[in-house]
Amino acid sequence: MIRLIPRVENSTAMVLLSPLLALTLTALSAYLIFVFILVDIPVSSVFFTLFVEPLIDSYYFSELLVKAAPLMIIGLGLSIGFRAGIWNIGAEGQYVMGGIAGSAVGLYFYNVEALWLLPLMTVAGILGGMLYAGIAAFLRIRYQVNEILVTLMLTYVAVLFLSAMLQGPLRNPSGFNFPESRIFHDSAMLPIIWEGTRLHIGLIVAIILSLVAWFGIKKHMFGMQIKISGSAPRAAKFAGFDDNKTVWYSLLISGGLAGLAGLFEAAGPAGQLTPGLPQFYGFTAIIVAFLARLHPVGVLFSALLIALSYVGGENVQIEYNLPSSITQIFQGMLLFYFLACDILIKYKVVLFKTKN
Amino acid sequence: MSNRSLSSVVKLSILSVVLAFTSNVYADPVKAAFVYIGPTGDHGWTFAHDQGAKYVKEMMGDDVIVTTVESVEENSDSERVITSLARKNDIIFTTSFGYMNPTVKVAARYPDVKFEHATGYMRPTDNISTYSARFYEGRHVIGKIAGRMTETNVIGYIASFPIPEVIRGINSAYLAAKSVNPDIEIKIVWVYSWYDPGKEADAANALIAQGADILMQHTDSTAPMTVAEEKGVYAFGQASNMREWGKNAQLTGIIDDWGPYYLERVQAVKDGTWTSTDVFHGVDSGMVKFAPMNNSMPFEVRNEASKAIIDLSMGAIHPFTGPINKQDGSAWLAEGETPPNYPDLLTMDFYVEGIDAKYPN
What we know:
The complex is a heterodimer of chains A (356) and B (361). Helices cover 70% and strands 3% of the residues of chain A. Chain A has 13 helices and two strands, in the order E-H-H-H-H-H-H-H-H-H-H-H-H-H-E. In chain A, strands 1-2 form a two-stranded antiparallel ribbon. Chain B is of the alpha/beta class and 361 residues long. Chain B has two domains: 26-134 and 258-284, Response regulator (Rossmann fold), CATH 3.40.50; 140-256 and 287-345, Response regulator (Rossmann fold, 3-Layer(aba) Sandwich). In chain B, helix 7 (197-209) runs parallel beside helix 8. In chain B, 40% of the residues lie in helices and 19% in strands. Chain B starts with a helix and ends in a 16-residue tail after the last helix. Chain B has helices at residues 3-22, 44-60, 76-86, 100-109, 135-149, 164-180, 197-209, 223-231, 259-271, 299-314, 341-345; strands at 30-35, 64-69, 91-94, 114-118, 128-133, 154-159, 185-190, 214-217, 234-239, 250-256, 278-281, 288-290, 324-325, 331-333. In chain B, helix 4 links the parallel strand 3 (91-94) and strand 4. Chains A and B meet through helix 3, helix 6, helix 10 and helix 12 of A and strand 2 and helix 3 of B.
């Protein structure tokens, strides 16, 4: 029999080193896989394309940041909720609803070129995500419905709603009846912060938000509340924390941020609302949040790492004709090793014999 | 030879060398890239495009370097993939409608690269072509077969997205079936996906449960064909021959043959003769073909279908020939009238009269 026994003291060094250890193990496993599947191609050049080129080629680096920005924003919101033990699994749905709400505003004022348009769209995007996550908060508080199920199921509803909107009111009137919105004009688009690339202001917003969240969790009473609610619910009750408030705040914050990311995607790289808006950012952000150990600044780095796997994985597909599932394999291994390392830091493995 | 004429010979030869370098004739292999919506697999839409890419490679050999990228989502990722390819290729085929705006954006940034977008309509810069096939001609043929072969008089139609191409297919199949069988009824299930074996199989089962004994699909997986084979009903292959999945079920199949078009376009890049075009070819040019007809079909039915194929290839018939009314009873085409490509065919967003289903909105 194998049993996991909690360690009395966690090694601080190991806590800090475990992400690196997980990364190394992932790289080693990837190496082994490549050795087996690659014919005629040196593993080192595949590794270069996968892990290094996206960091040194300016175009790929800009794309890596484009890909990371929504993961940062959603991951940040999720990490706050997860700390409180509120499991919002359906950020994808809130992301879609935010994208729809914000885009609808942009399309409603299609003929208006004004400075206030983008801020208004942004507010609509955040509200769209918030209200959608609010449904789960309401159901949980009023009827004790599990928020995991509600948020997850509502994701499917959101995707169908997007499709309905693009078949109907938001469809491009001169678009041959294809389910796509019009293309936003300039004042409805996010400002580009790196000339000649698609890198938009969302990255800066993500960084500012993560710093705000960091200080918020450290200094603000609410930070304390979600921390304790998540790790010691009974203690939170004794301390007089309002349970319902934790649920509301966790879901509204994570939903609002997911909605913001959805609008940023539509008004950023996509430049219009299309059925391709949902692209699993909401689900991938769950990995991002856990890789960061739910730390608001750590989320920035784990988002970069996941984005690297996307851009690098795509490049090896183009360059060496490897299957696109390389990216998923890489992400899965990374999360697996990371969680495994964390478990082994917190617990020790004890082997003992059972009497038969 | 005087000095003067010698110098002009030198000048001429320099000029010709310069010309050789600046004109678009490629001495090196042409680099052609293909972007696919799904996995290449062994059947369906992407498979058919990949067959086209392989055909180009086979025919041009060392004169071409072919790169393919599969499973590229129709979202902002596709713009990155197309950009990556534009940095290293001479011509890029983006083989799904959803790549339209990304293709347009990248084409504007890479004026020296040629772009070919399948099933779209935007050509804002002169380095973009669009191409598509008149699949509704294929639907006409299978519609006739279905009208003859059904016993329950119910056709089950598994549809993907309500876009003009899919609507054209439904209307064309229905009209053809109706022309040989006035009692025909068509039931349509929308799966809102191009490729989702689970949903497609569910749709197939649901349609059979509603009395359909013949299935048509505008989706890419072989799941409906497999279900048809199991349940002992008929079906038609989509985009490629699916006989392997339905030896008894498949009556014939509509086959997309992109190879000759791809070869022509890549060769044009090599020859420096490529120009922006808009191609909408059908049975006549061989872009739409048919899988061998099932031997279980009665001779008359096979004969009628073959005749329709020949008539289509000669341009003797048009699947949409008036009088045809729209579903709401309003007139669309007058007696003997056929619709223009634009706007009627390319923006089609209505069912024809007689289809008893709600138009998806």
